[in-house]
Design a protein that fits this description.
Elements (H helix, E strand, L loop, with lengths): L2 H19 L1 H21 L2 H22 L3 H5 L18
């Protein structure tokens, strides 16, 4: 699934509810999911890590939708490697 499609699916599925909840609450949910991901990475199974990565990316998509950010455009800064030095791999000190 590409990012534009993900944002569309998240918008159709949760958009109205997430906008009603608001950006501050969405940020809080995202932070909670990042914590769950950290725990899954440290102590979880592969299936648990997949689940938590999916949740984090979904909440990022929801937050992007609420704030009018196109994730594909935002991530284009990494298309050619490091946005600072242009290297791939990065050559920054």
């Amino acid at each position: 699934m590409d990012l534009a499609h993900l944002q569309e699916v998240i918008e159709r599925t949760y958009g109205e509810r997430d906008r009603a909840r608001g950006v501050p609450s969405t940020v809080a949910w995202l932070a909670e999911e990042v914590g769950e991901l950290a725990q899954a990475v440290r102590k979880g199974t592969h299936a648990q890590r997949e689940h938590e990565f999916a949740d984090v990316v979904a909440w990022v998509a929801s937050l992007a939708n609420q704030t009018g950010v196109d994730l594909e455009l935002a991530l284009a800064r990494y298309r050619e490697g490091c946005p600072r030095c242009g290297g791939m791999p990065c050559h920054c000190p």
